[in-house]
User: Fold this.
Amino acid sequence: MAKRKVKIGLLGFGTVGSGIYKIITSMHDEIAQREDVDLSVGKVLVKALDEPNTSIAEDKSIFTTNFEDVLADEEITVIAECMGGEEPARTFILAALNVGRSVVTSNKEVFAKHWTKMEEAAHQNNAGLYFEATVAGGIPVIRTLTHSMQGNNIESIMGIINGTTNYILSAMSEEGREFDDVLKEAQAKGFAEFDPTADIEGFDAMYKISILASLAFHTRVPIERVYREGITKVTKQDISYAREFGCVIKLLAIAKMKDNRIEVRVHPTMVPIEHPLASVRGSFNAVFIHGQHVDDVMLYGRGAGSLPTASAMVSDILIACTAQEHRYPMLDANGDGITFEEDWESEFYVHMKVADKPGVLARIAGVFGKHQVSLASVIQKEQDSNDTAHLVFITHKSREKGFGAALREIESLPEVSGIIGCLRVEN
Ligand code: HSE
Assistant:
């Protein structure tokens, strides 16, 4: 029998909390044997004592609606927060750390926003703070960065780290459907939230890439430094044109560091079909990391869901309760010597509707040239009945600001009736 008895407190008993309970109870003996820990759930904070998931526990006395009950149980040494949202999660996590309890969290929003304060509280109280489940659910990407790549400077991370948007974009691409139609169906099937804003507008991916970039570059990358654009404007026509250029469209979270300049962004991106990220379909996640010495590393798996996310949290719980000494990422909170790049370079795809008459293409190309945007290819699509044509451009690598200025000028030309689609392209 295991020597070390450990009781944990759970904050939240929804999808993730109940998953932790299931793993801890169903794998109790294996964990005891392999990890030398007799792990059990001491208290569970719920919103109501008759929440549906409470039916899975035989001992109903573990449930409470009062956070103080969890904190007051001195046998509980590790608290797993899986409530989501900013408050009261922030208050509960800080309260737990301030009395020396180790905290494990899957809450990317609260962690991305309050990491510095939480780490200070953990450090001061010699408590553990573990967050493997905040990014990409069951994929062990946090520990890969902190414990497996120390012999590298990380140069870039590109990830599909939001399953909902990958599910929607995959369905649009594979079934030739429009965004609204797929979103409604995903909501009906429970793949997308009733309020899908955090996912489709890129907030969820923003929190996650802020955490990954901070670890990769050893400096705090606040969410305010992350450029964010969601997928709501992507059309099935963009997807079909992307295919003609040998690409698929993915919501990528991208972080790069070069010469002490960091760029971090989340936006729908055209990715060449032969890139490993292009083949990540449905609700799966993947993270593609480039380290100076290891070269390319790609991790793939389930980025959400009850048991995959709980799998990461149980791993954190076991580390929290067996660590001889808790370690904290050595981040430079002030970013000394670091510049956050806002005028990064990428290739662009633009689809516009123009008057179909002599000189229009030359005029548009002239505006791009004036702003240092070099064109890689252009396709003129089918003519509309009223003498308009669709032009689709791919640029060479251009600066964000120059491209934006060119687009604004082009939009104001009398021969241009509208910019219909615009995406960045990443190789
Ligand atoms: N809503 C997230 C996703 C899962 O769709 O990937 C939790 O981070």
Summary: The two ends are 53 Å apart (CA to CA).
